[in-house]
Amino acid sequence: MNKASIPILELLDESELSLPAPTITHNLERKLSDAPSRATVFRALRPLEEHELIRATGGDSTHYEITDKGQAYLNGEHVIQD
Questions:
Q1: What range defines the domain where residue 27 resides?
Q2: Cα separation of 58 and 73, whole Å?
Q3: I need a labelling partner for 16 at 20 to 30 A (CA). Which of 5, 24, 33, 48 fits?
Q4: What is the pTM of this model?
Q5: Is 44 exposed, middle or buried (0-12, 13-18, 19+ CB in 10 A)?
Q6: Is residue 81 part of a domain?
């Protein structure tokens, strides 16, 4: 996980939407004065998915949505163990 992990989770939680990676990056740039770079956002997605904090949904392109475990993590109710 990296500096984009929490902002990604917060964005997906607040939006209640399934979003593609470029849209996640775009919205973080609009929302945060010190937004993570596109590369940092893309690198954060796999570990978030591996920890089951987000899930990829199918279709023509990959979209990501927060899971119940991801919401619990944001609320301090779930601890990630490496």
A1: 5-74
A2: 24
A3: 33
A4: 0.92
A5: buried
A6: no
Domain count, the chain: 1
Half-sphere exposure of 65 (CA within 13 A, CB side): 7
Strands (E) in the chain, as ranges, are: 19-20, 54-57, 63-66
**Tokens describing residue 71:** 């919401």
What are the strands of the beta sheet with 63-66, ordered from one edge? 19-20, 63-66, 54-57
Q: Find the CATH number of the domain harbouring 50.
A: 1.10.10.10
Whether residue 30 lies inside any domain: the answer is yes
Asked if residue 63 is part of any domain, the answer here is yes
3-state DSSP assignment of residue 32: coil
Q: 19, 56 in Cβ contact below 8 A?
A: no
80 within domain boundaries: no
- 12-70 pLDDT, tens digit per residue, is 999 999 999 999 999 999 999 999 999 999 999 999 999 999 999 977 789 999 999 99
